[in-house]
Design brief:
Chain B: One of its GO terms (cellular component) is cytoplasm. Chain B: This is FERRY endosomal RAB5 effector complex subunit 3. Chain A: One of its GO terms (biological process) is heart development. The structure holds 2 protein chains of 2 kinds. Chain A has 42 helices and 14 strands. By secondary structure, chain A is of the alpha/beta class. Among the domains of chain A are: about 110 residues, no CATH class; about 180 residues, Transferase(Phosphotransferase) domain 1 (Transferase(Phosphotransferase), domain 1), CATH 1.10.510.10; about 90 residues, Helicase, Ruva Protein, domain 3 (Orthogonal Bundle), CATH 1.10.8; about 150 residues, Oxidized Rhodanese, domain 1. In chain A, helix 28 crosses helix 29. The radius of gyration of chain A is 34 Å and the shape is elongated. Chain B is α/β, with parallel strands linked by helices. Chain B is about 55% helix and about 15% strand. In chain B, the strands form 2 sheets. Chain B has a 7-stranded mixed sheet, with helices on both faces. Chain B has a two-stranded antiparallel ribbon with strand order 1-2. Classes of the chains: A alpha/beta, B alpha/beta. The interface between A and B is large, with 115 and 122 residues.
């Protein structure tokens, strides 16, 4: 994204036209408000970036269909020349003409017309270069159909535009919508504009609007429009003195017949502009992160590197992109509506004064005068950056250019680094609103992502702290390991040909996260459809299950202007976390998943598990939508973002912990209620504190031995070498259990019925060795060293007979023979060993025996008496026998 | 691709692409739809991918095909634009479209929608006063304003009690007279004489009432004028810092509202205590929070000022005054019959209450109703002219008797329609929705499609567009209980209204982005206390929200 330089942030506002009351869409759902339609169409404008166009930054909806648009802005415009009232030099005229045409040509390439070209929308930056403003208004309002006011200014309208009439939605409700204007209408407007510059006065000012328009239409009968215009305004002598090329240019622009008028791109190549055209180099679009071409292909470094550092000055903020500055401006307390109200652009009457008198049964209002505050005032105001600069005055220059090669220090070593490390400890919600902190995070992530995939490891590391919301889309892509030319891949998928799933997709989309403005806009629906279809078509072995739409939503929201990236992220996410969930017959996968989940509930919260089992409230009744959509079906987007920020860092068993954490938040209500109330409670899940949920699920995750969540239907290990050298160093928790090399000591697949029979999870011998820190054996294949504190504390309970125990057992284990452990009522019989067990309550308890069956029963008993964290050694003691790790106690007793 | 509702004339054009593969010459012909649905470059990307895939094009023509497609689409689109434009101009030269008409439509479009070309606004006294008042009430002067308002209120109250006294006296005297006349009936006096006396009494009463009504009206008008002038002057003086007399005055004026609470008021407060509040969350994923309150009270309790209030009264008055010109208004739904006046029943009671205190901001209720009456007539005229224009569109089939009713008396309103009055002089309410209902609502079985319910929906919609954040709704759609309203009837009705209002509130969230609202449900004072309704209320916060269940799609089945 280009730096902001001397650009300002400008805000302007307008109203979308109100919908007719009580009309339903063809699908029976209420119509989308026009403001949402505009909001959806606006999004693409954010990507239109050209040196001659003012970048669009943001749009926001206010009350009563108000829209506020934020865009790049400059204080100076061509109106300043008009005010001076003097003819402009012909060099300047040619320069302006060429630069406007450059902008128009670029817009036309993106299928957009300006339609509102007028001096006030031709801004000048500090070097006097043209910047076209409001170029997207015609596009975002669906060619004027979604607003009440006509687009364009009367004096500058091309004759064919006038001939078609104003496109008021009320006028064409029963007829055909007038076709949008083509690129040539802007050329006419340009002609008028240049004419005004040449003669130094405004045209047609003395007429009222209808006279003006009639005059323009009568120009069709004239031979020489330029002369007629000059005569009309008494400036024929000025026109006559103009050099030939300027006159030709004017004549070409002011051609009445559209078919004979050139398009902007034709005009750019016109000999009349030859004089100035060689001064300009064609604009080259910067290469995006994921593309097949070399990102540094056009990088030119000056001979002397120090030149780069010279011209900067003190304005570090000006070197950031306008999107970042606007994001920070908002964080620093910027309020668009307030700014506009202060400048009296928004003038609202007290609502009690504008109430209607009478309403019919169908909702039509009467007796309500037209409120003047709803009229269009297209003034753009400059947003002051003072407040933001004040907030950031203590940020040193170094902070804007953090060094990345130092793997040790994550945060820039500035004066404020101590403050920042303190900031890291603050709640996420506060960090996300802290201007200074966000600036540093954005700068850091921006640099890291530019260095992606080379700096992939550091992205992972920093993402563990937090992810700046502004760069979440790209960061997630980096975490999911997206690489390569995703656009070409996406383009190669046929998203148009009808498929049988279409009908279902069509039904689901208008019901998916529709509270969100973006996703409920028609553009959002279209993109949803395309991404979902692309996924279905490109995964022939899988099918569309309802829920896939919810899963797509966060990716689409974050990458709204980049469907290819949304598709790529979704395609990378599903095999990692939802492997084979979208098989046509997925029951074995889901069943295994849910069984492991109920084991996890028993493992972490035996009391809750006992209660839920007692009332028969099994996970099948509520947890399928949780896991099938990775919680996107149950949470609103802003919560999903925080949840997934962590989820993406964890492995595929992390969702179990999230599930348990959610249950624990509702623990009291679940424990207090019976089956019916629980069903009712979950049919409309109550508010969940998502930050707490994340914190607790991390905690639960750390207490869970890796092999406890082993699933035979999980994603099979990836082929080695997949990581092509940039691979992250796998840490104990972020890598999948399935990814680890398989040995004799790993867990073995179980039949579903067997798995279901056991209430506690099994763990592998490998894990046991690792967690007990039984060293000295070459068998220990723990992949990395980890700090002691991050590992759960463990206690092995040997339930074999004491004779067997004395013949050899796991070091540190205690012996509670199965036969004598429990009393008649299922309570633990008091003995020294059980009191040890009691005193270690809270540790992970591993039941070791000959036969797993017995261990399972024993574990079930322990769970019954509310012992948390009980698990079973897979394969029993036999697995350990060959490791040589068993010890024989010294014969003291 | 979904067809857009507005038809755009589309056409098919054939795209031809030739290339050589070895010695073979191949030609690809594809019909393409115009106008393109998306911008050229996107369209090309998609089409290109599809063509490569479907026609198994060799990869070496990839770039050529892309270029050819781009230029083809660009050329054809441009041609379309040109043809369209020429046609439009053609229509002008042939006279198919009138130039003057066209120019006038444009001029109208500009002058109606843009500030630049709109006629300058004539200054409005109401709005200026609104601004001045809003500023003052949010300043230290608010106390003075309230005191003044209260004093005016007291003098009106005195007047009213005087009137009541005099009326009472007259009635007593007349009753005595009547008694004596009755005794003489059949002796010295005939029926005719009695009738004459009765009508004489009636006339006397009318005269007295009229006299008082006039006096009240006059006093009110004087108060209103004085008040408004004073407010404007106060504002001017406050703007001029040199003139500090008013400031002094503000400081000097003692707070007169701290009167000892009288027992009657406390009794009233206690009665109002029968209320219960609930917080609900609506929405499938993103939840919006709203407050519900179930209140057992008389509907006019929200309008009446306590004459000698405790300190709470002043607070309430301040609260109402502060929010009068703000964006959090309070509304009340009043159920009325089909005539726009204030002669009978609840309408009359409401009118009486609204006269108890001078409205310093808005027109008198009668004047507001006159305006409404005009608007109703205008609306009927609009509707019928529209219906004449489009006779093929039948409006809500089966409404013939309704239409007949209207023809008979176009100034009446229909069930489900409502008019709105504005007040600054009621205790808890700024806006009153007078919703027309018929006798159906007293019967047991109304449905969600009942006009009264649709009226509620429209009321909530107006709340949405006009920032009315607190609305009071009669839960049972009646203001007083009668014999046939049994407990099952109440439960059924309450459930219906709850369900519908919940639906409307969820709908509202999509209109206004989910602003938190308070809805008060009013239960008439009778033996049916809110406590008995509780079961149905508790169902409201947690009904299953219709989200799509997860089940496999029909793909490939």
């Amino acid at each position: 994204m280009p730096p902001m330089k001397d650009a300002r942030l400008g805000a302007s506002t307008f109203f979308a036209s109100a919908l007719p009351h009580d009309i339903c869409g063809s699908n029976g759902l209420p119509l989308t408000p026009n403001s949402i339609k505009i909001l959806g169409r606006f999004q693409i404008l954010k990507t239109v970036s050209h040196p001659r166009l003012c970048r669009y930054v943001d749009i926001s909806r206010g009350k009563h269909e108000r829209l506020i648009v934020v865009a790049e802005h400059y204080e100076r415009s061509l109106e300043d020349f008009q005010r001076a009232g003097k003819p402009v030099s012909q060099d300047k005229v040619l320069q302006v003409a060429y630069e406007i045409l450059e902008g128009l040509e670029f817009m036309n390439k993106h299928g957009m017309m300006h339609r509102a070209l007028a001096p006030r929308n031709v801004l000048m930056d500090c070097r006097g270069n043209v910047k076209l403003a409001k170029f997207g208004l015609y596009h975002m309002t669906n060619h004027g159909a979604d607003v009440d006011f006509p687009i364009g200014y009367p004096s500058y309208l091309a004759p064919e535009v006038i001939a078609k009439g104003p496109s008021r939605p009320s006028d064409c409700s029963h007829g055909e919508l007038p076709r949008p204007s083509g690129p040539k209408v802007d050329v006419w407007s340009l002609g008028i504009l240049l004419f005004e510059l040449c003669v130094g006065r405004r045209l047609l000012q003395s007429f009222d609007i209808s006279e003006r328009l009639k005059f323009i239409l009568t120009l069709g009968c004239m031979d020489d429009i330029v002369t007629v215009l000059a005569e009309e305004h008494g400036c024929l002598d000025v026109i006559k003195e103009l050099p030939e090329n300027v006159l030709t240019l004017l004549r070409k622009c002011l051609t009445f017949q559209p078919s004979r008028r050139p398009t902007p791109s034709e005009l750019l190549k016109d000999p009349a502009l030859q004089e100035v055209s060689h001064l300009y180099t064609p604009f080259r679009k910067p290469v995006s992160l994921f593309s097949s071409s070399l990102r540094c292909a056009y990088l030119e470094l000056p001979e002397d590197i120090s030149e780069l550092c010279q011209d900067e000055g003190e304005e570090y903020l000006a070197e950031r992109s306008i999107e970042e500055v606007y994001h920070l401006w908002c964080l620093a307390g910027g309020d668009l509506e307030k700014e506009l109200t202060n400048k009296e652009i928004i003038q609202s009457k007290p609502p009690i004064c504008t109430l209607p008198n009478f309403l019919l049964e169908d909702g039509e209002c009467f007796g309500q005068g037209r409120d003047r505050s709803f009229l269009l005032d297209d003034t753009t105001i400059t947003l002051s950056l003072c407040q933001l600069k004040n907030r950031l005055k203590d940020v040193t220059g170094e902070a804007y250019y953090p060094l990345l090669d130092d793997e040790q220090s994550s945060l820039p070593q500035s004066n404020s680094s101590s403050e920042l490390s303190a900031a890291v400890a603050l709640p996420l919600v506060i960090r996300e609103r802290d201007t200074e902190y966000q600036l540093l995070r954005i700068v850091l992530f921006d640099r890291l992502l530019q260095a992606y995939p080379y700096k992939k490891n550091q992205v992972w590391k920093e993402a563990r702290v937090d992810i700046p919301p502004l760069l979440r889309g790209l960061t997630w892509a980096a975490l999911l390991g997206i690489e390569g030319d995703i656009q070409a891949k996406y383009d190669g998928i046929d998203k148009d040909t009808p498929i049988p799933t279409d009908r279902q997709i069509e039904v689901d989309i208008p019901r998916c996260h529709q509270y969100d403005e973006l996703l409920s806009s028609p553009q959002g629906h279209m993109k949803f459809r395309r991404v979902l279809k692309a996924w279905v078509v490109s995964h022939p072995d899988l099918v569309y299950w309802q829920g896939l739409d919810s899963l797509c939503a966060p990716f689409l929201y974050l990458n709204f202007n980049n469907e290819a990236l949304a598709y790529a992220c979704m395609s990378a996410f599903i095999p990692k976390y939802l492997y084979n969930f979208f098989l046509k017959d997925n029951s074995h996968v889901i069943q295994e998943y849910l069984t492991v989940f109920s084991q996890m509930i028993a493992f972490h919260d035996p009391e809750l598990s006992n209660h839920l089992n007692e009332i028969g409230f099994i996970p099948d009744l509520y947890a399928i939508p949780w896991f099938l959509t990775m919680f996107t079906h149950v949470f609103p987007l802003h919560k999903i973002f925080h949840l997934w920020d962590t989820l993406l860092l964890g492995n595929s068993s992390f969702p179990f912990c999230i599930g348990v954490a959610i249950l624990q938040q509702l623990r009291d209500r679940l424990l207090a209620n019976g089956f019916n109330e629980c069903i009712l409670l979950f049919s409309d899940l109550p508010e969940i504190d998502i930050e707490r949920c994340v914190r607790e699920s991390i905690n639960l995750f750390c207490w869970t031995p890796k092999s406890a969540t082993y699933r035979q239907h999980a994603q099979p290990p990836k082929v080695a070498g997949d990581n092509n050298g940039f691979g992250k160093t796998p840490s104990y928790y972020s890598s999948d259990y399935q990814d680890l090399p398989k040995t004799d000591l790993s867990r073995e697949p179980l039949k579903l019925s067997e798995l279901k029979a056991e209430s506690s999870p099994r763990i592998s011998a490998e894990d046991l060795i690792d967690l007990c820190e039984l060293s000295g054996s070459g068998h220990c294949k723990a992949p990395t060293k980890k700090t002691k504190s991050s590992k759960p504390k463990i206690l092995a309970v040997d339930i074999r007979s004491s004779e067997d125990f004395s013949r050899g057992h796991i070091p540190g284990s205690i012996n509670i023979p199965y036969s004598t452990a429990f009393g008649p009522d299922g309570e633990l019989v008091q003995c020294p060993a059980t009191s040890t067990l009691q005193s270690f309550r809270g540790r992970v308890i591993v039941i070791v025996s000959h036969a797993v069956m017995r261990a399972a029963t024993f574990a079930a008993h322990l769970v019954k008496v509310n012992y948390p964290r009980v698990c079973i050694l897979d394969g029993g003691i036999n697995k350990m026998k060959f490791t040589g790790l068993l010890t024989v106690p010294s014969p003291q007793i | 691709m979904k067809k857009s509702k507005v038809k755009v004339s589309s056409s098919e054009k054939e795209f031809t692409f030739e290339f050589r593969a070895g010695r073979q010459r191949c030609v690809l012909r594809v019909p393409l739809q115009f106008p393109a649905r998306s911008p050229v470059h996107e369209e090309v990307r998609d089409l290109h991918g599809r063509l490569m895939l479907l026609h198994r094009m060799p990869c070496f023509v990839e770039e050529d095909l892309k270029n050819a497609l781009t230029s083809f689409i660009q050329r054809e689109t441009l041609e379309d634009y040109e043809r369209e434009a020429e046609e439009a101009l053609q229509r002008l030269t042939t006279g198919e479209v009138d130039i003057d008409m066209l120019a006038n439509t444009w001029a109208k479009a500009y002058s109606e929608t843009t500030l630049e070309h709109a006629r300058p606004e004539e200054p409005s006294w109401d709005e200026d006063f609104a601004n001045v008042y809003h500023e003052l009430i949010h300043s230290p002067a608010s106390d003075t304003l309230l005191n003044l308002e209260h004093n005016y209120f007291l003098s009106i109250s005195e007047l009213i009690s005087e009137r009541d006294m005099e009326l009472k006296k007259l009635q007593e005297r007349q009753a005595a007279e009547m008694d004596s006349v009755m005794q003489e009936l059949g002796k010295s006096l005939s029926d005719q004489d009695v009738n004459a006396v009765a009508s004489q009494h009636f006339d006397a009463q009318q005269v007295l009432e009229n006299k008082w009504a006039n006096e009240l009206k006059q006093v009110t008008a004087i108060q209103k004028q004085e008040y408004q002038e004073w407010v404007i002057k106060l504002h001017q003086d406050l703007q001029n810092p040199n003139n500090s007399t008013i400031n002094e005055e503000i400081k000097v004026m003692p707070s007169q509202l701290t009167e000892p609470p009288d027992p009657g008021a406390r009794l009233f407060e206690e009665q109002r205590q029968l209320e219960e509040s609930f917080t609900i969350h609506l929405g499938a994923q993103l939840k919006t929070m709203h407050n519900l309150r179930l209140v057992r009270a008389d509907v006019l309790d929200f309008c009446k000022h306590r004459r000698h209030g405790s300190s709470g009264v002043k607070l309430r008055r301040l609260q109402t005054a502060l929010s009068l010109y703000s964006t959090s208004l309070c509304g009340l739904v009043l159920l009325v019959d089909n005539r726009v006046n204030s002669y009978s029943g609840i309408k009359r009671d409401f009118a009486t209450v609204s006269k108890e205190c001078t409205d310093f901001h808005f027109l008198l209720l009668e004047e507001q109703l006159e305006v409404v009456q005009q608007v109703v007539l205008y609306a009927r005229a609009q509707r019928s002219s529209k219906q004449r224009d489009q006779p093929e569109v039948p409006r809500n089939g089966g409404n013939e008797d309704k239409a007949k009713n209207l023809e008979r008396n176009p100034s009446n309103i229909l069930p489900g329609e409502f008019y709105i009055s504005r007040h600054s002089n009621l205790s808890d309410v700024h806006v009153v929705f007078h919703l027309c209902v018929d006798d159906n609502v007293r019967s047991g079985n109304i449905t969600a499609r009942d006009p009264a319910i649709m009226g509620l929906r429209n009321i909530l919609k107006v709340c949405c567009t006009h920032d009315i954040t607190t609305i009071t709704v009669p839960l049972l759609l009646v203001h007083d209980m009668s014999e046939e309203m049994t407990i099952p009837w109440c439960l059924k009705r309450a459930e219906l209204v709850f369900k519908c209002v919940k639906g409307f509130m969820m709908e509202m969230a999509s209109w206004d982005g989910g602003i938190s609202r308070t809805v008060q449900f009013l239960v008439p004072q009778s033996e049916h206390a809110p406590g008995r309704m509780e079961p149905s209320v508790n169902q409201k916060p947690s009904p299953a929200i219709a989200v799509h269940p997860l089940c496999p799609s029909g793909s490939g089945q």
